[in-house]
Amino acid sequence: MLIEAHPVSPWQANCYLVAAGSGDSAQPTACLVVDPGIASLDVITHALEGRRWQPAAVVLTHGHIDHAGDAHAVAARWGVPVYCAEADQPMLQRPSLGLGTSFVGIIEEFLGADALPLPADLRPLVEPFEVAGLRVRPHRAPGHTQGSTLLEVSDGGSSVVFTGDVVFAGTIGRTDLPGGNMSEMRETLRRIRSSFPEDVPLLPGHGPDTTLAAERLSNSYLHDSYLHHEM
């Protein structure tokens, strides 16, 4: 599996391009676009120039504008579907629903209004599916947003987990925005720690990649003292 990370938006969110196998076939290679945040269309277009990669689908870890703001534009440019958990889909049309009214001014600076067009082919993200030679298995992971979803992606030879804004290297996503909930985040983190192999790569929505083993060792939010703390 080949994975490219491209930081996009003023928040430097990671947008990922994922292709099965080596991705260097002489034939056009379908790829997956994960989290095309605001201002990512030009970045993605430039990254694909000179390559034989062709987007086959867009998949979102959650609905915040820094991860999903250009989902409609990427989908329209290549005529592909967008997968997003239903709980976060309203944010794709009205970004402030995921950030709060205090962000409306910032959103309007970027977009001109607190509004975006919905992707023409918007699909729920619940069941595993196959696309571009990849198997995508969603794992519900509320805490940062109600629709936050971990994406376990495999090409049959290797697997990775895209964690969005749930787990970063050394920390976790904030829970104080609309739809965030610390108790739900704690339960999500418990499931992460028990559900995935220690050596699985974790590819977050911001910052460098890591592994579950590294986070169990150095991330205090994945230690027993936090996970089993009674609120």
TrEMBL record:
It holds the Pfam family Lactamase_B. PANTHER family: HYDROXYACYLGLUTATHIONE HYDROLASE GLOC (PTHR46233). Gene3D superfamilies: Ribonuclease Z/Hydroxyacylglutathione hydrolase-like. This is MBL fold metallo-hydrolase. Its cofactor is Zn(2+). The lineage of its organism: Bacteria, Bacillati, Actinomycetota, Actinomycetes, Propionibacteriales. CDD domains: metallo-hydrolase-like_MBL-fold. Keywords: Hydrolase, Metal-binding, Zinc. Residues 12-206 form the Metallo-beta-lactamase domain. It comes from Tessaracoccus antarcticus. SUPFAM superfamilies: Metallo-hydrolase/oxidoreductase. GO terms for molecular function: hydrolase activity; metal ion binding.
